[in-house]
Design brief:
This protein is mainly α. The chain has helices at 3-18, 20-49, 82-88; strands spanning 64-67, 72-76. Strand 1 and strand 2 (72-76) form a beta hairpin.
Length: 98
């Protein structure tokens, strides 16, 4: 190890021993930031980047309804409408709801 690195490490250790409360605060802050970053990355990866657990996920489609009277679009399919859509869908291999 070079002399400059050894000198820097000795200075760091002396600073930690001289002001332990401040050093503990810095270490706790770093731990919280690293933990938060890891949690956010894990959530984003799970939602956006992990492949879907289905065969041929690029062939999945989302079926929605629209209400032209109110102008609402992309509404989820209602429980009552799903059996009608499932029985009349001829272009799909299968239809499922969750």
């Amino acid at each position: 190890m070079s002399e400059a690195i050894q000198s820097d490490l000795r200075f760091a250790l002396r600073s930690i021993v001289r002001r332990p409360a401040f050093s503990l605060g810095i270490i706790a802050t770093l731990a919280l930031v690293i933990g938060a970053s890891t949690g956010i990355f894990s959530a984003i990866y799970g939602i956006m980047f992990r492949p879907l657990p289905y065969k041929d996920p690029d062939r999945l489609v989302f079926i929605s309804e629209s209400n032209h009277a109110t102008g609402a679009e992309h509404l989820g399919v209602t429980t009552g409408a799903f059996p009608i859509i499932a029985s009349s869908a001829q272009s799909f291999e299968s239809v499922a709801a969750c």
